[in-house]
Amino acid sequence: MTTTARSIFMGPRLRRLRRELGLTQADMAADLEISAPYVALLERNQRPVTADMLLRLARTYKIDLADLAGDGGADHTARMQSILKDPMFSDIDIPALEISDLAVSYPGMTEAFLRLYTAYREEQLALAEQRAPVPAGSASGPGVDGFDANDPVAEVRRFLAARRNNFAQLDDAAERLAQTMVQGLATGSAQVSASPSGFIERFRTRHNLQVRYMPPNVMLGSLRRLDLHRRQLLIEDSLDSASLKFELARQLAYLELDNEIGTALEDGKFASKTAELLARRALAAYAAAAIIMPYSIFAKAVDARAYDLEALARQFGTSFEQTAHRVTTLQKPGAEKIPFFLIRVDPAGNVSKLLDGAGFPFARHGGACPLWSVHGIFKTPRQIVTQWLELPDGRRFFSIARTVTAGGGSYGAVRVERAIAVGCAAEHAGQLIYTRDGHGPRADEPTPIGTACRVCHRPKCAARSAPPIGREILPDDFRTSSIPFGFSAD
Prior knowledge:
This is DUF2083 domain-containing protein. It comes from Bradyrhizobium denitrificans. Keywords: DNA-binding, Transcription, Transcription regulation. Residues 14-68 form the HTH cro/C1-type domain. Helix content is 42%, strand content 11%. It is of the alpha+beta class. The chain has four domains: 5-70, lambda repressor-like DNA-binding domains (434 Repressor (Amino-terminal Domain), Orthogonal Bundle); 75-128; 163-327, Arc Repressor Mutant, subunit A, CATH 1.10.10; 341-451, 2-Layer Sandwich (Beta-Lactamase). The strands form two sheets. It has a six-stranded mixed sheet with strand order 5-4-8-7-6-9. α14 crosses α16, α15 (258-265) packs across α16 and α18 packs across α19.
């Protein structure tokens, strides 16, 4: 064993182990045949843990040596480095060595800092998403300062956004699980994702479950149903291949990654059981995607394909929406890719999915500007439309939009058409295949959009549906403006 700082000093981990075992320092000293003061010195990082001591700990307490040694703080270091990129820390010079020393020597303090920052991000997002006052007499009633406090969907969105829609431990566990079902996961392998037959074999050998495909009239509205009494997993037989594989992966995530999902939920502090249940469902879907599109392999693929979502979907046997959703999750500390936002809307403009990893206020507040292509993409179904966007504050983003279909699969089955928009900040757009052919819209001619009409102060917008807050409307006694609401520019 090497004697580097990464593996010698592990006082806080040793202290946690002792407490988890319910031992005093004297108890552990007796078990290890050393003195109690020496245990205290080890826990305070005043003495290194030798290779002989590591082996003694592993043998005495029947624990895996790798689990005991841990990663030397590599995960905490990566997370700290990612968080300290926040502009609020920009005036503090923190050398990388100090971050590593803190993570290795004081993992408890590091974890406390990470939890505080996550809580801070959640509160910031909650403030940013405050909605208009709830009307008097509404079912939910107004919350603090007249705002609706009972919105489990918004609560789950904040939970995901505060963590940049990434759960590294869940990714790691899902990738290990995928490796047990797929042969040749190395770069260059022809097969990069588990096939339905791989899932079926896993259910049979690991869980004694038989997968059966049943018609819709038998499933009675369910796409997937686990019957533990008969040891069967029932799947609707009209699902397309991408949906079939996703449902198999989702069930496997519930069966084998339940502990990891629970750990990810622990610091959510949800206000209601409904919010916690919705978050659990979101994490199960995240785990399913991580099994089908393992992080390390998918991250390499997006670079090789220049984020060509349709090509990636074919490579991994996934749908366009599943692939688009997955690219928003590639923010694993130390292995980050382009941060994306995603919004899904129906023809009526209702927002059914929001994922914001790119600091795009439109996605956070609902995306009501009709000038954004995501609202007009229904005229050109299944075609990708690219667009450069410019917000009133001058920030620019690049967006791609395309329709997706849910449901169907048989004659008379209900189909739901929705539109998906995925985008990133302008500085990352050059890495996307969509900006390289020279046939799309020009970067120097972005579409001017706003967050919402009531907070958009662009004076010349023919698509405006409401006047901006705080602006005086001009009279039209002698002149009719070309825009719906003329108002003073100052």
